[in-house]
Specification:
The complex is a heterodimer of chains A (409) and B (278). By secondary structure, chain A is α+β, with helices and mostly antiparallel strands. Chain A has ten helices and 21 strands. In chain A, helix 8 links the parallel strand 6 and strand 7. The N terminus of chain A is likely disordered. Chain B is an all-alpha fold and 278 residues long. Chain B is built from 13 helices and no strands. In chain B, helix 7 runs antiparallel to helix 10. Classes of the chains: A alpha+beta (409), B mainly alpha (278). At the A-B interface, helix 2, strand 4 and helix 4 of A face helix 1 and helix 5 of B.
């Protein structure tokens, strides 16, 4: 701590990577039937040998430089938390190498081991020792911890009388007092109110300014883009991408929302006269896109095949938001009749529009209808595609049509 | 900060690289548990004392008033109390130790933690209780007119052996319990059997000679017998006399060391994987 800034910069350049992971693998065995008692063991002496191996981390290699704020993103169950636990020394890797230079402080859960029947004072001391401070150090830093948590008036109150927000604050205040060179954060920031989250990130920024390395596991792409220097994407235990945070954030959105979901069985009677063969959206460059910027011109591409003679069909795409409201129907209806098609005809329909949908995720459902004499749906494929609309401002409306401002007076 | 600037990664283990941290953790866990017992209830410490005392009262009544058993044993009530207190230490450590790892699941899965601190903290907690209970034993000893002697100091190595035995068994059982959850009921029954198989309510000398020697192979029997000689009645046989020669004392000693080594080996073998088997 006595180093001058230039010395510190020098040591940072000279410093080895803070975290080196090479070919790490971790698998959990999932027995088909769990024999967890001796009796069952004795009754089924050979049966327990069948199990599935779940590869949670599969050959992951990466390095984090000293002083970096590094994001790890992935869907639920992608293995990112297990990876963090391997780094934290809670799980052992099956294979490969994990090297960490520096004292590690895992923020995997705040206030681990807090006992509701003890006072805040006791809990702070116990928690600090568990996180790696000596008894002496823990006592010396006690005031600083209480200062940060702003809980002076409550130190001799039993923890069971604390609100959950208060105990989270207390837990966080203890955790940051452990001088760690490598900090592992696992979505602890999902708890607490916005002001508290702000405070947490300020604190992490301060730690990084002091030369700590931070590994941050999250779903929150906003936080990744705001704070991380680099990020990596894990999918099914494998590292799929590593790079700049905005790039990874985009890839994450694709992986997460770009999948085509299974067809709805109710749609089976559909598709006799005509069927939708595929549907996708194209961005302004004309490439297929799963994420669109708000305000961009884009185009829905629908391939349709006719199996019978169909007169004047209407081909539409319904955009539904996350609460399943149809926000927008892009349709040929508004462009007049399309004509008569015969069995074997294949057409591609393009519907261009300016995208003023509110930033959110939308699912896309193509529909073919005919008018003979009532409106009748002849093919519909529910939610076969989806798109994310990205935008800077969330207004709360479902569409954000461009406005022009004039102020008189 | 005096903390090491560069530490290298290590997988979860029984003790971990930092012995000071290990000791601090063990002591903290034990003291916390002790405090919770102490202050958590209205009568606090009285409860820790009540269990052996109540057991003592019942057994004392049965064996002196009903079956008239203790008459030929000098200071039988004192022996009964002392042996109950020592056996309580063993049964408390091991029975709470069995489930200790599973009960501390939240710690094991959330923080980097030397695994052995958990069962050792249980043993340490029981040791605090033992020390408090021994005060009562000494009150009884003095009240029944036994003169203080230098040989009372023998209690220190005897208790050390008992601690070693209890810790060894606890390490073994707690690691096994993570995999085999029926360890706990099995051990409950085993403790009951051990209670009656050990000379707690009787003394080894009252057994027929041929059984006496075999019974003394149990380290608990050896410790209690030697305790009787050293603390209560100098005319009572020593452990060496009861087993038939000092060389034979190596048998119970071997059991203690053997169980300790086995326990430590099993525990350290299981330690890296405990968190995922929970």
């Amino acid at each position: 701590m006595t180093d001058t800034p230039s010395q510190r910069a020098h040591t940072l350049r000279q410093a080895p990577p803070a975290v080196v992971v090479e070919g790490a693998r971790k698998a959990f065995r999932l027995p088909h039937q769990r024999y967890s008692t001796l009796k069952e063991r004795a009754l089924h002496p050979f049966a327990a040998s069948t199990y599935d191996t779940l590869r949670v981390i599969d050959d992951v290699s990466f390095q984090v430089q000293t002083g970096e704020f590094f994001g790890v993103v992935g869907r639920n169950g992608s293995g990112k938390s297990t990876l963090l636990k391997c780094l934290a020394g809670i799980y052992a890797v099956d294979d490969g190498r994990v090297d960490i230079h520096g004292r590690v402080s895992p923020f995997i859960e705040l206030g681990v081991g807090f006992n509701p029947d003890l006072t805040a004072r006791d809990n702070v001391l116990i928690n600090a020792i568990m996180l790696g401070l000596s008894r002496k150090e823990a006592r010396r830093r006690f005031d600083a911890i209480i200062d940060f948590a702003e809980l002076h008036d409550f130190i001799d109150l039993k923890l069971k009388n604390y609100s959950s927000g208060m105990s989270v604050r207390l837990g966080f205040s203890v955790a940051i007092q452990v001088d760690a060179e490598v900090i592992l954060i696992d979505e602890v920031l999902a708890v607490g109110d916005a002001a508290f989250q702000r405070k947490c990130f300020d604190e992490f920024e301060r730690m990084r300014a002091e030369g700590s390395t931070i590994l941050f596991v999250t779903h929150d792409m906003g936080a990744v883009e705001r704070f991380c220097d680099r990020a990596m994407l894990i999918e099914k235990g494998q590292l799929t991408d590593i790079g700049a945070p905005d790039e990874i954030s985009r890839r994450y959105s694709e992986v997460n929302f770009g999948h085509v979901s299974a067809p709805d069985p109710r749609d089976e009677q559909m598709g006799v006269q005509a069927r939708v063969r595929s549907l996708w959206l194209e961005g302004p460059s004309g490439d297929r896109a799963v994420a669109l910027q708000q305000g961009e011109r884009c185009r829905a591409h629908i391939d349709v095949e006719f199996l019978d003679t169909v007169a004047h069909p209407a081909i539409s795409v319904a955009f539904r938001n996350e609460v399943r409201h149809t926000i927008f129907l892009a349709s040929t209806m508004t462009h007049g009749p399309l004509g008569i098609f015969h069995a074997g005809d294949r057409i591609s329909v393009h519907l261009s529009f300016e995208n003023w949908l509110a930033p959110s995720r939308y699912s896309l459902t193509p529909v073919i209808t005919v008018w003979d004499p009532d409106e009748r749906v002849i093919d519909k494929k529910s939610d076969i595609a989806s798109v994310i609309v990205e935008g800077a401002v969330v207004t709360g409306g479902v569409v954000d049509m461009p406005t022009e401002l004039e102020i008189d007076g | 900060m005096s903390a090491p600037t560069v530490t290298s990664y290590s997988e979860p283990s029984a003790i971990g690289g930092d012995v000071r941290r290990f000791v601090a953790l063990t002591v903290t866990l034990a003291v916390t548990d002790f405090k919770l017992r102490f202050f958590g209830s209205a009568l606090g410490y009285v409860w820790t004392l009540m269990r052996p005392l109540l057991l003592f009262s019942v057994l004392y009544f049965v064996f002196t008033e009903v079956v008239r058993f203790g008459a030929e044993v000098e200071h039988y009530p004192v022996y009964l109390l002392a042996s109950i207190v020592l056996f309580t230490f063993f049964s408390e450590t091991t029975s709470r130790g069995v489930t200790s790892l599973v009960e501390r699941e939240n710690l094991l899965r959330k923080v980097r933690f030397p695994r052995l601190a958990i069962p050792l903290a249980v043993a340490l907690h029981a040791l605090f209780n033992l020390c408090l209970n021994l005060i009562v034993v000494f009150v009884f000893v003095l009240a029944s007119g036994i003169e203080p002697r230098l040989s009372w100091l023998e209690l220190v190595p005897l208790i050390a052996l008992l601690v070693m035995l209890s810790t060894g068994v606890t390490m073994l059982l707690s690691a096994l319990y993570v995999r085999y959850r029926d360890m706990q009921p099995i051990w409950e029954v085993a403790l009951q059997m051990l209670f009656y198989a050990s000379p707690v309510i009787y003394v080894v000398a009252t057994l027929p000679d041929n059984i006496e020697r075999e019974a003394m192979a149990s380290p608990i029997a050896a410790i209690l017998t030697q305790m009787r000689h050293a603390l209560i009645d100098p005319s009572a046989p020593t452990a060496a006399e009861a087993i038939g020669g000092g060389a034979r004392l190596l048998i119970p000693l071997f059991v203690v060391v053997g169980l300790f080594v086995l326990g430590a080996w099993v525990f350290s073998r299981e330690a890296p994987r405990i968190a995922e088997h929970l």
